[in-house]
Amino acid sequence: MIRYSIGRLLGLLGSVLIISLILFIAVRWLPGTPWNEAEIPLQGAAKENMMKKYGLDQPVHVQYAKYLWNLLHLDLGNSFIYKTETVWETIARGWPATAKIGSVTLIIAFSIGIPVGIIAALRQNSLLDYTVTFLATTGIT
């Protein structure tokens, strides 16, 4: 049992690392810079200072290691959009509305899904069962 649990934890760790690497690379491939150069065009030393401030002048593997370290310490940094807030403050400000919308969505999904699932289970291998299964599968994707 312990060996199985350790294997599952290692698999989880590997999955998290792969997902974080994919996200890191995807963000790096986006065109432009983290700050809005359309509003404030940066030239020469100003651009170099911004690159240094955010660690973008370092090699990619160093940036990734710093990214993982900050994630491990739950440090998401400062918001580029809301200059006076950290990312956590921005998330906390939007959390109540997100929780309300998510709760209502779950209530609606359970209210419809459970009764329809019971009906489909009672009429196994019928057209109704196949239709419900198809709609549920396409709804998930």
Walkthrough of the structure:
- The protein starts with a helix and ends with a helix.
- Helix 4 (87-122) packs antiparallel against helix 5 (127-140).
- The mean pLDDT is 88.
- Helix content is 72%, strand content 0%.
- It has helices spanning 2-29, 44-53, 60-72, 87-122, 127-140.
- With 141 residues, it is mostly helical.
- It has a domain at 81-141.
Say how many strands there are: 0
Rg on CA atoms, Å: 23 Å
Largest sheet: none
Overall SS class: mainly alpha
Low-confidence segments: none
Helix content estimate: over 70%
Residue-averaged pLDDT: 88
What percentage of the residues does DSSP assign to strands (E)? Answer: under 5%
Q: What gap, in angstroms, lies between the N and C termini?
A: 34 Å
Gross geometry: elongated
Quick take:
The chain crosses the membrane at residues 9-30, 101-122. Helices cover 72% and strands 0% of the residues.
What structural keywords apply?
5 helices; mainly alpha; 141 residues
